[in-house]
Amino acid sequence: MSLSLSQSAVQGQQQPTGIVTLTTAAPASGVVVTLTSSNPTVAQVPSSVMVVGGQTGASFTINTSTVPSNASSTISASFNGTTRTAGLTVMAPGLEASFAVTSPTKGGDGCLFGPGTDEADCVLDASNSRGFIGLYRWTYWTGSAPIGHSTDQPRSAMQIDTDCGFFENGRGGDDSSGNKYVQMTIELTVEDRVGTRSAPVRRSVRLYPNKHCGFNY
Fold first, then answer.
1. Nearest partner of 175 among 120, 102, 110, judged by Cα
2. Rounded CA gap, 167 and 165, in Å?
3. What pLDDT is recorded for position 117?
4. The CATH number of the domain where 33 resides is what?
């Protein structure tokens, strides 16, 4: 008897197929092959599969769970004192960073500087990021050196610890209403519990100085 799997590695929730093959055709009454999984929280198999009379093989479906990190299970098939095994790896979902920036005063992709010189009123919202995320790594800059913060929460606020120096070498612009702003870039990378990081994603955001730091607008 042999045991094979349609795939040796799958994403969680996928359903690979197992195939047991006898060396000779089953008798008219059929043959019951016992199945087990060494890690049933990761991969689940039926308790047995029947090879019908006259046939040499039968297939069965393996159900897999969503896992926070890659995990493995050994699938076993036993008949008439013989056991065959096959390894299956269940992979965690890939990491994907995604975010929005919203200000109660300036709307989407806008931030109002203040009231202190180390903060802005916008919310950085990474709730739509995907994967088992343990850390959200934020970076932001105008024309100066990038700064940022890390948090385990999907929603957070900017932490501008360079105060007015954050605007150094920044470039300005006018919005659709004629209001002046400084162009800011915000970048997000998400990280899982074992340190794997996503590709970074960026957004261009309007930062309104709000007459702080020597600005007259």
1. 110
2. 5
3. 81
4. 2.60.40.10
Domain housing 57: 2-91
Beta-bridge partners for 11 = 91
Contacts of residue 194, defined as CB under 8 A and 6 or more positions apart, other chains included, come to 69
Cβ–Cβ < 8 Å for 112, 90 = no
Residue with tokens 């007015």: 164
Mean pLDDT within 57-76: 95
Report in angstroms the alpha-carbon separations of 213 from 169, 171, 181. 13, 15, 13
Query: Which domain-ending residue is among 62, 91, 120?
Result: 91
Nearest alpha-carbon partner for 124 in 151, 108, 102: 102
Which residues are paired to 90 by β-bridges? Answer: 10, 71
**Percent above pLDDT 70 for the chain:** 100
To the nearest 10°, the Cα dihedral for 160, 162, 163, 168?
-110
79 lies in the same domain as 127: no
Per-residue pLDDT, 193: 81
Do 122 and 190 lie in a common domain?
Answer: yes
